[in-house]
Amino acid sequence: xxxxxxxxxxxxxxxxxxxxxxxxxxxxxxxxxxxxxxxxxxxxxxxxxxxxxxxxxxxxxxxxxxxxxxxxxxxxxxxxxxxxxxxxxxxxxxxxxxxxxxxxxxxxxxxxxxxxxxxxxxxxxxxxxxxxxxxxxxxxxxxxxxx
Length: 147
What we know:
Blueprint: E1 6-11, H1 13-21, E2 26-29, E3 40-45, E4 51-64, H2 66-73, H3 81-87, E5 94-110, H4 111-117, E6 127-130, H5 132-145
Parallel strand pairs: 1-3
Antiparallel strand pairs: 1-6, 2-5, 3-4, 4-5
């Protein structure tokens, strides 16, 4: 897989589990990251897990009104129609990152390990773009932790 860019994305445990189980194939966002098809999303699972658990390759990015987006991806989103509309309340546009393929790490890397081995690591509130050096550091850390 050739990626253009990598970014760290924070996802709630419930949704991360669905992504890695394959039942959730779109990631909903109120603010769309500046990403393109082929980019790599490193999945940081938020509290209470607080760990880097895996990644996914971004397929296409869909943007539409909330109702139009619900019609396109609602059944793939892992939420009910009511949850979907509440999430996008007062938004004119809604965004969905299509998950081309996802994979879990053999063993998640916890927040304490991330902070210890990658000084200054801060989990993203939403998402955080990674430069080449940060991407390399995280990949190296994952390899070390899982060997």
